[in-house]
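User: Here's a structure from my thesis project, written as structure tokens. My advisor, Dr. K., wants to see whether a designed sequence matches the one we expressed. Can you design one independently, without my sequence as a hint?
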């Protein structure tokens, strides 16, 4: 992700357009290596040549929500990114879901869901959910604008 404040986490400055080395080393070394090797985060792969339209345009997180958690409707400021959720634990209860626009989705075990977070969306973790719900949450540039050339062709800007 793009952390404009460059806050320190574990005493290590958070890199602009990069993965946090301490967090990667301690919590997700395989995931971080995969993201870097395959260049799955376009803003990291292309750096500042690929503009972000909001400060958190791309990000990689692990989200944990306890039973009974509700996240109210919210949406991105633009539609030039997609969001991927991969359930890691606690997603099997029928009352635990994400609603994107008019679509109510349950997180299938071992399968990713991808959605456009510019649509209003909310999350509900059922109070009877058997444990915390964990997802790998990845926001990335939309495939139609994931290189500097595609971005500038769609948005109509050129860098000199």
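Assistant: Designed independently from the structure alone:
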């Amino acid at each position: 992700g793009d952390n404009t404040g460059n806050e320190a986490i574990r005493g290590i400055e958070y890199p602009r357009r990069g993965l946090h080395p301490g967090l990667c080393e301690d919590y997700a070394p395989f995931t971080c290596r995969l993201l870097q090797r395959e260049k799955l985060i376009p803003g990291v792969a292309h750096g500042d040549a690929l503009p972000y339209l909001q400060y958190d345009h791309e990000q990689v997180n692990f989200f944990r929500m306890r039973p009974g958690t509700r996240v109210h409707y919210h949406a991105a400021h633009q539609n030039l990114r997609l969001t991927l959720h991969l359930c890691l634990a606690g997603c099997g209860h029928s009352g635990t879901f994400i609603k994107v626009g008019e679509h109510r989705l349950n997180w299938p075990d071992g399968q990713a869901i991808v959605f456009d977070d510019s649509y209003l969306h909310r999350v509900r973790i059922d109070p009877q959910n058997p444990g915390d719900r964990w997802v790998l949450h990845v926001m990335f540039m939309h495939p139609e604008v994931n290189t500097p050339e595609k971005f500038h062709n769609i948005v109509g800007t050129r860098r000199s």
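When you compare it with your expressed construct, this may help: Helices lie at 21-27, 29-37, 42-46, 148-155.
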